[in-house]
Amino acid sequence: MNMYSGLIVLLSLAVPCLLVPLPKEHSRGIAIVNPGHTDIRTHSYTVAILTGMDLLGGGVLVKQNWVLTAASVVHGFKKEDIVVRVGSNSGYYGGHLRNVSRVIEYPDYSTNQSYNLALLKLDRPVFYRVAAHISYLARVPFQDDRSYGNLTGYGQETYDVTEYTNGPQLQIIGMELYSSSYCNHNFWSMSVPNIQFCADANNSGPCFGDVGDPLVKCVRPSQCELLGIYTGVNICQYDTPSTYMDIGQFYGWIQENIASKRKWSRT
């Protein structure tokens, strides 16, 4: 990790969910590349989704008993074979495990994989103290070109799996965000559907194990808005922007499925 990445870590530990500036250079690999290792206490909305000891991808707590992720992370798996780890800096150890009682893929995903979203209902709620930074959901489509956000997840630190020796560790990277129209106009290789947007991090980006990771924008400490979910497009390609589901366009569907009159437990 270079000095700039170290600064990212110190800042993210000092202030909950602090918006991290875009890195100016990368030091190694192409993963949550040029990552700063961060602490789950400041990004406790981030979860790891596994089957056995295999990391399927990431996700985000949108309610005490609901996780939002990419449909491609869980598609084809029985709910009994999926577990969610919350409250840990490691995707493999620590924190709390929750089984999944229900999987809801976005209805159009089976015929159009651009609609890459799924909700996982947990068998038990996550204690409030563990999920202290659950993100607000964006309510309107993304259109704030050249704004900044944070991507957090447990994916590989390098394209080379032989260097993936410490297992999945929570990492953070600052990214510059662009609407789908901006992406398609300014990046010749991009063809981003209007239900998604793209993000770039100066020769950095998400890699294997990062599909489903949350991208948030923080307007002030502890007030972080969930803007996107990583789709897996351009995975491990550090010279091309990665794409994200535009959560503001799916706010109604998410709320309809997770709505509950039950109050949150603070025990």
UniProtKB/TrEMBL annotation:
<dbReference type="GO" id="GO:0006508">
    <property type="term" value="P:proteolysis"/>
</dbReference>
<dbReference type="GO" id="GO:0004252">
    <property type="term" value="F:serine-type endopeptidase activity"/>
</dbReference>
<feature type="signal peptide">
    <location>
        <begin position="1"/>
        <end position="19"/>
    </location>
</feature>
<dbReference type="InterPro" id="IPR043504">
    <property type="entry name" value="Peptidase_S1_PA_chymotrypsin"/>
</dbReference>
<dbReference type="InterPro" id="IPR009003">
    <property type="entry name" value="Peptidase_S1_PA"/>
</dbReference>
<dbReference type="InterPro" id="IPR001314">
    <property type="entry name" value="Peptidase_S1A"/>
</dbReference>
<feature type="domain" description="Peptidase S1">
    <location>
        <begin position="32"/>
        <end position="259"/>
    </location>
</feature>
<dbReference type="InterPro" id="IPR051333">
    <property type="entry name" value="CLIP_Serine_Protease"/>
</dbReference>
<dbReference type="Pfam" id="PF00089">
    <property type="entry name" value="Trypsin"/>
</dbReference>
<keyword id="KW-0732">Signal</keyword>
<dbReference type="InterPro" id="IPR001254">
    <property type="entry name" value="Trypsin_dom"/>
</dbReference>
<protein>
    <recommendedName>
        <fullName>Peptidase S1 domain-containing protein</fullName>
    </recommendedName>
</protein>
